[in-house]
Design brief:
heterodimer, A: about 425 residues, alpha/beta, Double Stranded RNA Binding Domain, five-stranded mixed β-sheet, 5 strands, B: about 350 residues, alpha+beta, four-stranded mixed β-sheet, about 40% helix
């Protein structure tokens, strides 16, 4: 019986152990055995594919391909300032963004065309605060861009853009929203359409253009007349030919009209410049037409002013030349003096110490001899006097050599050291 | 007797010598050891492979107690503004309480990410990005935040015992009633993974009382987080899936696809077969958006490399393009957020 129990016990244990092993096998997890990414492409195929991709990217959506030279000009209208959200600074930056957009489209001038304007209306469409740390604030705006004829009120093209600004405060989010404004293909297309319609308008309204320019010139408003004439795009052939033919006349008219103003500006500039050179005076003078009544007065003022400037310049030039020469000589002399003084001091110190030691040695020798002859206090005094006289005579020798041989102190010392004076 | 003395001296000498030996290996790196080969040969642990970031973040109630949570009204809407940096400066207890929690996790070999340091790092990164001239769009700016996978939201409050005030305790040395809550939240699913709460703890020091309570409740709290990890290993990662139509897209999700059924039908069928045991729940279904929650996805590939939300999104994106000709963008984030942006058929 006991044996049976033992057999059962052993069997159960074996089963248990086996089952444990089995479980362990089942529980065995995944090993990390990463496979490299495989590609069916050969190296040459890969290079060809890269080249094709590059070409696609360059030939795909490229804003440059949308550029064309219509020579159309706009005036950019600044968006309205809206309390704390759209501040003056933001409005200014928006104008710059719009300027970039227009320039990319080949728009050749900004701010000169009184007829056609490029503007945007801004509407806040949302704002939110995130639940993140740090918290972020967002503002959402919808911008509606328009190109329109300010005279007729016709809108030539529009485009909308949704832009989000993010920042750590709503103020910062508003500031950042301008950065998010992108020059999209939709905006470029809008500008292209507007430009085409503007050219079309000029082609169909040559008489209107003529009337506008003539009316403005007739009223003496040459600024407006010139702005209208210079805004006509080259592609609108008939209108452009007329505008070009009027340019000289209008410019002359404007110059005559502005001559009095220019004279006033010139007089003020001369007064503030004194006899200093001021380039603006030259410019004011050149802007006054020669046949304008103000020209004679301007010429007189200009002549006096330029004469004063010339005199001052000549005087300054002469002085500078003199000063320069004197300064150069003085500097040279000073350098030489400083150098020689320094050397003389060094050499004098050397000589002094050399002769001092020689004198001491001689004095010691003489003292030894005298003490043998005389002895006592008077003998010592006499030795001292004798030593002093020796030194005085030696310095006199040096001075004499310097004077007669015209030697530098350095040379003197060199000679002395080689015993030439001994 | 002499022999005993001799042995005593020898033992003391050996002890001293051994002390010296220990001192030599006391350096931080000298005492370190590890067997990379054995580690590499061991089984892949999917949770370890993409280890969730855990971070203690103060809750709204605590921010409000320190006047760092304000409400701003604009365009007829209230906005809650949270000033975390100011809170960290104002609350001198925060650092000590958070350190206690971090210490408990360190003891379990699971270092937490530090919230204050993360905020500083984000500031530094912003400045460096400006210096390097990196372009940053609105979305990047929105995502440049502390992004823990599991948020440990800490809320605590104290109040003076009213009884001690009425009993003329003018010295204000009476005990305080301290309450605190620490919730572990899955950042993607918003599920509460573990909680720790204590109310009306009596103590003179708020910090000490909270610290003691945290230490006491931590084993259970960590056990719950371990269960959460075990659940991930068993049933797959719990994620949210969102398919949204971009502005200007030429298709709606309710439109008929080339397969005959709608795009939404096709996506729904895909999710049924590409989630662990078909676990998912549809939450929103509109022309412009499909939103699924509680989707369980596998964690590792057969070769042991990790399989995350980005890979799952990439597979769906490939299938949409290949089978339906739908152009999409993979905008998956973190460990549990799938986002596919549908551009349309181009």
């Amino acid at each position: 019986m006991k044996r049976i129990y033992n057999i059962i016990r052993i069997t159960l244990m074996a089963v248990a152990i086996m089952s444990c092993g089995g479980q362990q096998q089942q529980k065995q997890g995944t090993k990390f055995a990463p496979k490299e990414r495989e590609s069916s492409m050969s190296d040459s195929e890969r290079q060809a594919a890269i080249a094709q991709k590059r070409a696609e990217l360059l030939g795909g959506l490229n804003l440059d391909t949308l550029l064309y030279s219509h020579g159309v000009k706009f005036s950019i209208v600044q968006p309205k300032v809206q309390g704390e959200d759209i501040t003056q600074d933001i409005a200014d930056r928006l104008v710059m963004k719009m300027l970039q957009m227009a320039c990319q489209n080949g728009i050749s001038g900004i701010g000169t065309n009184p007829s056609f304007v490029f503007g945007t209306e801004i509407a806040q469409t949302g704002r939110a605060a995130t639940g993140t740390a740090p918290q972020k604030m967002t503002v959402q705006y919808q911008l509606t861009y328009k190109v329109m004829n300010a005279v007729t009120g016709d809108v030539y093209a529009t485009a909308t853009q949704d832009v989000m600004g993010v920042g750590s405060s709503f103020v910062e989010a508003n500031q950042n929203f301008v950065k998010e404004i992108k020059n999209t293909p939709e905006i470029q297309k809008m500008l292209q359409t507007a430009s085409e319609r503007i050219i079309d308008w000029y082609n169909k309204n040559v008489q209107t253009v003529k009337n506008q320019i003539e009316t403005a010139a007739g009223k003496g408003d040459y600024d407006l007349a010139l702005a209208l004439a210079s805004s006509v795009p080259e592609q609108a052939t008939a209108a452009f030919q007329y505008a070009s033919s009027k340019m000289d006349e209008l410019t002359k008219g404007l110059m005559h009209k502005k001559a009095a103003d220019m004279l006033g500006e010139m007089t003020a500039a001369i007064a503030s410049a004194g006899d200093d050179f001021d380039a603006s005076i030259d410019a004011y003078f050149n802007l006054i037409p020669t046949d304008a009544p103000e020209h004679a007065k301007a010429q007189e003022l200009y002549k006096t002013y330029t004469q004063k400037c010339k005199e001052r310049r000549d005087a300054l030039e002469a002085k500078a030349e003199r000063d320069e020469q004197a300064a150069r000589e003085f500097e040279k002399f000073k350098m030489m003096m400083d150098h020689e003084t320094e050397l003389a001091q060094i050499e004098a110190d050397k000589i002094k110490s050399k002769y001092a030691s020689l004198a001491s040695a001689k004095a010691a020798e003489a003292k030894a001899k005298a003490s043998q002859k005389r002895g006592g206090l008077f003998g010592s005094i006499g030795d001292a006097i004798s030593g002093t006289f020796d030194r005085v005579f030696k310095v006199a020798d040096v001075a004499g050599a310097l004077a007669t041989d015209k030697l530098g102190l350095g040379q003197y010392v060199e000679k002395a050291e080689f015993g030439d004076f001994e | 007797m002499k022999t005993i003395k001799f042995f005593s001296v020898a033992i003391v000498a050996i002890a001293l010598a051994s002390c010296g030996g220990n001192k030599q290996s006391n350096g931080l790196t000298e005492g370190a050891s590890g067997d990379m080969e054995a580690y590499e040969q061991s089984d892949v642990n999917a949770v370890e492979q993409a280890r969730p970031t855990i971070m203690v973040i103060p809750g709204d109630q605590t921010l409000q107690n320190f006047k760092c949570l304000t409400t701003q009204k604009a365009n007829g809407r209230d906005y809650i503004l949270r000033d975390y940096k100011n809170y960290l400066l104002k609350d001198d207890r925060a650092k000590r309480i958070i350190s206690t929690i971090q210490n408990e996790f360190n003891a379990q070999n699971y270092p937490l990410s530090d919230f204050e340091q993360t905020l500083k790092q984000l500031d530094t990164q912003e400045a460096l990005d400006m210096a390097d001239g990196f372009e940053k769009d609105a979305k990047t700016m929105l995502l440049t935040v502390a992004q823990p996978d599991i948020i440990l939201e800490l809320t605590y409050d104290t109040s003076r015992d009213k009884m001690s005030m009425t009993s003329h305790n003018y010295t204000h040395k009476g005990e305080k009633n301290i309450s605190f809550t620490l919730n572990a939240l899955d950042a993607y699913t918003n599920k509460v993974v573990a909680t720790m709460t204590a109310s009306n703890i009596k103590g003179e020091s708020t910090t000490e009382a909270i610290q003691a309570s945290i230490k006491e409740s931590m084993p259970k709290f960590q056990e719950d987080i371990t269960k959460y990890f075990s659940d991930i290993l068993t049933r797959g990662r719990d994620i949210t899936v969102r398919i949204a139509v971009e502005k200007g897209c030429n298709v709606n999700l309710s439109d008929e696809s080339i397969e005959g059924d709608t795009y939404a039908d096709w996506i729904n069928d895909y999710i049924k077969t590409h989630t662990v045991k078909g676990a998912y729940k549809l939450q929103r279904n509109t022309d412009k958006e499909l939103y699924f929650v509680n989707c369980r996805i596998k964690l590792i590939n057969e070769d042991g490399t990790q399989y995350g939300v980005y890979d799952w999104t990439r597979d769906l994106q490939k299938n949409l393009r290949k089978n339906l000709g739908l152009q999409c963008t993979n905008k998956a984030q973190g460990l549990g957020e799938v986002l596919i942006s549908v551009k349309g058929i181009k």
